[in-house]
Amino acid sequence: MTSGFAPLRNIVIVGGGSAGWMTAAALSDAVGKSCQITLVESEAIGTVGVGEATIPPIRTFNQRIGIDEATFLKETAGSYKLGIEFVDWSRKGHSYFHPFGQYGAEFDKVPFYHYWMREKLAGNIEGAIDDFSMCWAMAKAGRFAHPEADRRKIQSTFDYAYHFDAGLYAAFLRRMAEARGVKRVEGRVVDVKQRSADGFIESVTLDSGAVISGEFFIDCSGFRGLLIEGALEAGYENWQQWLPCDRAVAVPCAKQAEITPYTRSTAKEAGWQWRIPLQHRTGNGYVHCSEFISEDQATETLMSSLDGEPEADPRTLRFVTGRRRKFWDKNCVAIGLSAGFMEPLESTSLHLIQYGILRLIALLPDSEMSPLLAREYNSQTTVEYERIRDFLILHYKATARDDAELWRYCSAMEIPETLQYKIDHFRNYGLLVSDERELFANPSWIAVYLGQDITPRRAPAITAMRDGVPVLERMRMVADAMDQAVEQMPSHAEFLAKHCPSPLAV
Questions:
Q1: In the predicted model, is pLDDT for residue 50 greater than 60?
Q2: What is the rounded CA–CA span in Å between residue 194 and residue 196?
Q3: Is a pLDDT exceeding 90 seen at residue 231?
Q4: Which position among 74, 81, 120, 397 bears the catalytic label?
Q5: Contact present, 194 and 41 (Cβ < 8 Å)
Q6: pTM across the whole model
Q7: What residue ranges in 173-230 does DSSP mark as E strands?
Q8: C-alpha–C-alpha distance, residues 84 and 82, integer Å
């Protein structure tokens, strides 16, 4: 190398689970045999694994590291996910769907949604915008097929993600990573040694007495943040004033006959309950705020609302929503829960891991360990966390519920100016303010705005200038095409049984 700086030869990952093994699998694929990757984990430290829901970018990650979809779903007892049904969020007895895909199909220069809003405000159409979501049409019918590549077909207007067993996913990735040369070391970290000159991490000591040295360290130790916080004291930014839930009780239960191709989030008195259907069981949890409900009450609420027999004892998790002030500090990057926590309301947990890894690969340092790389990594990651934060806050802020303290607090709370700006544009002009770096694209914001009763005062002005377009006729054509397409699809259960049956399913 002309610069005189050598590439990294020794990277240490502290912690396993989804974060650790996703990192190990992706890094080993990226650097090949040129760098020794060592992962340290302890089987005595448990992981959270009651069913993981994801968003479509997980498909890109899996494809990038060479994972075949059918094999992956078989190995993880996975199912398909077309979106999230939100129940009782705006008001009790009301539900809406957040789809993975667009609304309707474009037939003019003006976006479909803009025309829909014009006709809705004029009283020319009834029902919700959900009626024009291909994802919702499939989800409520319990059907699934892969999207069509032909953009002229209505079957090209949707996307999908997965539900799967997070523990099985980590084990699957471990086999892949070890086959690529990743070395796993069993043990619990009891000490971290730093260089006296600059505080860089030199090694970690395990409870066995073994010392694991490295040039670069990746902290996947979960909430504890053994390296990024325990050693480097990177700091933490607390967002509980906007996202007050700080506990979750979780339990798996027996699966139902119907494996729904979507996640369900049901608002409760002091938080919300998730339901994630897998091929062999259903994952359930109640995310709640300890200020408004006790752990015993939360557990009782969850256990009384399961739709199958529990298959384990419920477990309580404690967390503080927020992020590290530095995700990359010195020669250490935090990935996963050690980097921050965003409640799984929109299934972003694995996404933040995924893009933390891909961002690290793009900015991977050499022996110079340039602080400019860390600065760029921290800048990009901070923006990503803050945008996801704002989208989550919208769910809590946009509620008409006043039946419980949590919802009264959330509806009255001050919100970040970045979010208020977006709401103001939508409420006044029906316009969506975003940029190309947003994780959640326009259909996602539309789903939550309208689903939680933020209705624009008027449709975008351009819609009043195109009177010659047969909008209602085209909308009926779109609706008919959706019905016909769904009718021809197999059921979700049939699709799974044919293409990716799990040996764990009975």
A1: no
A2: 6
A3: yes
A4: 81
A5: no
A6: 0.96
A7: 183-186, 189-194, 201-206, 211-213, 216-219
A8: 7
